[in-house]
Give the backbone structure.
Amino acid sequence: MSFATERVGRGLRIVRLANFVAPASGGLRTALRELGKGFKEAGHEPVLVIPGERHTDQETEQGRVITLPGPLLPGTGGYRVLTDKRRVAALLEDLDPDRLEVSDRTTLRWTGKWARRARVPAVMVSHETADGVLRTWGLSENVSRRAADALNTRTAHTYARVVCTTEFAEREFVRIGARNVVRAPLGVDLEQRTPALRGAGLRAGYARADETLLVMCSRLSVEKRPGTALDALEALRRRGRRVVLVVAGDGPLRVRLEQRARERGLPVTFLGHVGDRDLLGSLQASADVCLAPGPAETFGLAALEAMACGTPVVASALSALPEVIGSAGATAVNTGGAFADAIEGLMERPEADRRAAARARAECFGWRTAVDAFLAAHDAQPSGALHVRHTAREGVA
């Protein structure tokens, strides 16, 4: 299937819709920002529409960003959703997109039908596995699989293409026989996330020289399984290991996790949301091991950022992260004991070797590659192609 090419004289206007975007940080917000920047640098016209407290419309480094008023979802720690279909549809009509990209297969799936009526090629980006999320909510494997298959079948029929960031994410669409699935990885900023961010002073603020410093950068919500990090810490302490944990992130489970740490006497520091990206990078670089226990992750940007900083990761074996981290980290089933085993295994490797391997693996995932893959999913010109085409037309050497 091939979409129409750019309008004469400019690139494509790519309108992107997303719900469930964390208020200040998070993997989805990072991905939207970096892809938007890449689309814009490639000569296209990205427009991002997300829910917010009120209506805003501004030009940014990632292109035009529009927020429409959306209600808060109770118990989610700040997530909002676009619920006014008429207003969203009217905005889409006004924006007159060349392409539509949707990052929500549930509450925004109706936009696929709008795109068909408007004859606008539309893609849905799968940022999580449907059956994985349903299992984290307590549904049985059989029930979650049947529900996911029904949802994914409707999604695949509604959109021209479905974009999956990993083979892991693609499996549930292959399972239903979808033929319009394409692969496009996400990436990491290899210049802002480097081993050079490692700081002895920062590390000393959280752990002594003879202690292992574990860091988890995650939203504290049920689908991320943050309690597994505390389970692993407790298991390691019972084994006599000197280990501490720092948690960067906020969410609806924070109060419960803090209470548990106090009651069990666990050495956990809860930082809440860390808005300073340089500080967050330094924390990731200064850790001995970063933890990514979310079983429904289809890529894991926080884990990849840690690896770019030279810090190996222990991730859920049920997620997509095994194929992302490769042999540069370790995976485990979601129990404290299994995560503790994996942490101990990583720490047995020479420090220089494990840190070099983490960085080398992260270097396979630059944002330029990700941007070009997403543009290919839109049948859009890749990075630099529009500039070359325009300058050649204008006779510029």
Notes: Residues 118 and 200 are 57 Å apart (CA to CA). Residues 195-362 form a domain with the Rossmann fold fold (CATH 3.40.50.2000). The radius of gyration is 21 Å.
